[in-house]
Amino acid sequence: MARLNVNGKDHTANVDPETPILWVLRETLGLTGTKYGCGIASCGACTVHVDGEAVRACAVRVSAVEGKKIVTIEGLSPDGSHPVQKAWVALDVPQCGFCQPGMIMAVAALLKQKPKPTDADIDANLTNICRCGTYVRVRAAIHAAAKA
Questions:
Q1: What proportion of the chain, given as a percentage, has pLDDT over 90?
Q2: How far is CA 27 from the centre of its chain?
Q3: What is the pLDDT of residue 78?
Q4: Is 0.85 topped by the overall pTM?
Q5: Rounded to whole angstroms, how far apart are CA atoms 126 and 128?
Q6: Which of 28, 79, 100, 144 could form an S-S bond across to 87 if both were Cys, CB 3.0 to 4.6 Å?
Q7: What residues have CB less than 8 Å from 50, skipping those under 6 apart?
Q8: How many angstroms separate the CA atoms of 95 and 35, rounded?
Q9: Spelled out in words, what is the top-level CATH class assigned to the domain 83-147?
Q10: Whole-number mean pLDDT of the chain?
Q11: 3-state helix, strand, coil in the chain (%, to 5)
Q12: Any idea where the domains of the chain sit in the sequence?
């Protein structure tokens, strides 16, 4: 039995301790904003925060996050008022939108570490993959969110 704190609420999940948290979030807790992309921690579609750090949920086991605070896209800002979410809407960042929850979570963590990132900071720290190639809009939205 795993005890997890997700989006500020305590949950218990009857899962194997080796289960990736991605599946607990999606299948057990019904938080489907966190997406399954590659399953090998390369694409970033499953990015969530664990104790404020961006992690790839497909590669983190439940046993590694018990007692830690997990935040998903649903918990970042339920009303969409987070500066990154607002910048994403204002600059029409998503095309298909599949990767965007993970991208937003990665950017929110980046801005917490580096409130005014340079383009070099963005390139070094944002490794999420967008198959639609909206990187120009992503970069502009990151700078807009940093100003907000």
A1: 98
A2: 17
A3: 86
A4: yes
A5: 6
A6: 144
A7: 60, 65, 68, 69, 70
A8: 16
A9: mainly alpha
A10: 96
A11: 40, 15, 45
A12: 2-76, 83-147
